[in-house]
Amino acid sequence: MRRGSSRRGWVLFLFLLAGIIIGSVAGRILAAYFDIPLFTESLQIGTEDNPLVLDLEIIHLVLGVTFTVNFGTILGVLLGLLFYFKS
Q1: Residues 33, 36, 37, CA angle at the centre, nearest 5°?
Q2: C-alpha–C-alpha distance, residues 16 and 35, integer Å
Q3: Range of the domain at 20
Q4: Which InterPro entries does the record match to this protein (predicted)?
């Protein structure tokens, strides 16, 4: 394994994370100004209604994750990948 390969993985992760955040914000802004179904629709994936519950009498732990994906998020991921491969 090369020495810099794990570093490139972190760079890819940061580009994707930045793309997801910026794309999600841009998607919400576009949905606020344009009434096009492409911008206004979003898909929620995760454990919103039934999270994992662990009750140990002294600790009550609830674990759940929900991802909201819209057009801006997908566009942000694609732009993050494009910038990653260009750098």
Answers
A1: 130
A2: 27
A3: 5-86
A4: DUF4321
